[in-house]
Amino acid sequence: MNTQPRSAEKTTPYWWEAAPVGPAPDQSLASSVDVAILGAGYAGLSAALTLVRAGRSVAVFDAMNPGEGASSRNGGITSGGIRPSFATLTRKFSEKTALEIEAEGKRAREFLYDFLQDEGINCDFKLTGLFRGALGYDQYDDMARSAEGLARRLGVESYAVPHAEQRDYIGTDFYRGGVVRKDIGGLHPAKFHAGLLRVALAAGVAVHSHTPVSTIARDGARFEVTSAAGKITAQQVLVCTNGYTDSAAPFLRRRLVPVRSRIIVTEELAPDLMARLMPKGMMMGENRQLGFYYRPTPDGTRVLLGGRDSSWVGDPVAPTLRLRDGLVELFPELKDVRLAHSWFGNVAMNRDMLPRLFERDGVVYASGFCGSGVVWAPWLGRNAALRLMGDKSHGRTVFDFRPPAAVPFYNGTPWFIPALIRGFGLQDRFAFWRARR
Q: Where is the FAD dependent oxidoreductase domain positioned along the sequence (predicted)?
């Protein structure tokens, strides 16, 4: 009889074991700064560092500890993925725009990798490559053509892996082949944020922990920002709150839906088992609406697996059990393995599922990373800073266009998420049933 517990031993992020989050050093609130930034995650700190090094004074506000949101809760995969396919982007915008989005993803990843090296941030980064599994042979054919197109257009090493060779990459027979992209890797997200925070503080960025902002109001040519620590005036304001946007930014709040992304991590596994499951140590994904993303932990001793969470209040056990069932479906050898951690963090989705950098009423927003913030948040944070400084040539991004459309009947409470997740789940089951396996 299986006596192993199905839920996890801890409900805190695995990443916090090596890099616990905590408050920034206390700093007095200035009466006036050049730029006030809401959100001390990857985007807000990347912007702040760029601004301070250019001679601007900056105050960053966070309602929690810096990085306590998605920046220390994600899977640490440097995918820079865009949810709409290249074909969908071409139909909705144009082939030129689709090509620009694809090319910008490459530049954003390269920026991240260079930044880690240049700033000496040790966050266990490895350029492992990513394997994405196909549910059926028809899907495999489409994915193989896409991989060929990507290699041709961008010069990225990207290729198909037929089913007969799949076990060289992943220890499961669940997929019917897949594709590999070699310019994607993995890092320790909490160590990355800790390093970014260290560099920003050393450069002179003022970071105010547990200091929620209540209002942003125009005061002539400047803004008055009211926070839990008092009021401050700023020449410019940047909002980088993403999946943790609250009533301080009501315009953005109506356009970004916080969706929980749940992650589980196993107990330590035997080296020979890890070698069978993930022989190349790659990052992993799959082509489903509610697809899983998974990887070995940086030390190569555990499996981490994540996916969307249908809950929006509390911390129910059902989403953890769903991920555990998915883990066992992929790797039956893990049916009796204990889970060490299960936690969630908010990703921010919008109606067209594209990141955004835009301005409204003088306030600049960099948000809506749609689950790929490890790459897009630092990149768009930097670009937002360049935009604030008027450097349009270096701060140009294809995502600098109109704001996302408002979500009907939504004002910050994602009551519709359970039904939406169930709908995606039905689509996945139907697609699996139709797949040529």
A: 34-385
